[in-house]
Amino acid sequence: MRAGEAVLECVFEVDVNGILKVTATEKTSGRSANITISNSVGKLSSAEIDKMVEDAAKFKSSDEAFTKKFESRQQLESYISRVEEIVSDPTLSLKLKRNQKEKIESALSDAMAQLEIEDSSADDLKKKELALKRVVTKAMSTR
């Protein structure tokens, strides 16, 4: 060893989690330093992951209720659209008796009013759809 040159001993350790620990010791003076390097940039901690899983479980039932309500609303809107086509079709409309057409239009109006209520439950929407279907089915079968 020449004068002014340092002799370093470096030890690299990688644990099972991929964390690198480096220890450097200068041999002549005995001084050492260490650093721990983890690849945590952009990764979630286990506490953050646990919190996300807990939140997902907590909101699962409200998410399912929202999905059920959304699907019921879509089904009712679709059926209303089909009934409106039937009522506005001159050939089908002429085949209906006057009071049958009025009953369909009344049930149609009720169903549309239910759609306007923002906090309608999925069950309320399904009930209106079934009521409309009953009126339309009865009117079509007694032409």
Automatic annotation (TrEMBL):
Keywords: ATP-binding, Nucleotide-binding. Pfam families: HSP70. It comes from the Eukaryota. One of its GO terms (molecular function) is ATP binding. InterPro entries: HSP70_C_sf (IPR029048), HSP70_peptide-bd_sf (IPR029047), Hsp_70_fam (IPR013126). SUPFAM superfamilies: Heat shock protein 70kD (HSP70), C-terminal subdomain (SSF100934), Heat shock protein 70kD (HSP70), peptide-binding domain (SSF100920). This is Heat shock protein 70. It comes from Aureobasidium uvarum.
